[in-house]
Amino acid sequence: MRILTGLATAVALLGLVACGQSTGTETATDGTAAGGAAAGETPATPSPTTSTTAAGGGTPGELEVGFDRPGGDIDTLYEVADAQACQAACVANEECQAFTWVQAGIQAEYPVCWLKDRAPPQVAEEWATSGVMVGREAPAEG
Predict the structure, then answer these.
(1) N or C end: fewer C-beta atoms under 10 angstroms in the chain?
(2) For the chain, the helix, strand and coil percentages under 3-state DSSP, each to the nearest 5
């Protein structure tokens, strides 16, 4: 039974690596583990992604890794390097209430950033990272 448990763990870790996900235990060439901790130490927990007050008010909330927010698109940005850059584009756009960043190879051969005029409900999708603007009011209708 112990061999099967070890095998299942190894297969799960290989699956994470194949999908480009971190196990949190990798060691960098300088001897530190992921997150900057020394090898054998527990890496520091990253702080939530929150920035200063954005144009139009509000602050970006935490990144929602593994979630799409389909609908409400007001702009599409191509070849945006990562979710943090997509979040920054939302911060800079006063109309943006939420965003979704999609990994390369899913909707196009390169990553895509969708800016949204509202915060649609979350849908679990491993290839997406989303976020909302906290305290940014939607424009008045009418």
Answers:
(1) C
(2) 20, 25, 55
Q: Are strands 98-102 and 112-116 parallel, antiparallel or unpaired?
A: antiparallel
Q: What is the pLDDT of residues 11-56, one digit of tens each?
A: 333 333 333 333 333 333 334 333 333 444 433 333 333 344 455 6
Domain residue extents for the chain: 59-134
**3-state secondary structure (DSSP) of residue 61:** coil
Closest CA relative to residue 75, chosen from 56, 101, 52: 101
Task: Please list the alpha-helical segments (H only) found in the chain.
Answer: 2-18, 83-92
Looking at the DSSP bridge assignments, the partners of residue 38 are: 32
CA geometry: angle 25, 30, 33, nearest 5 deg: 15
Q: What is the pTM of this model?
A: 0.59
Over residues 99-108, the pLDDT tens digits come to 999 999 999 9
Query: Do 96 and 55 contact (CB within 8 A), yes or no?
Result: no
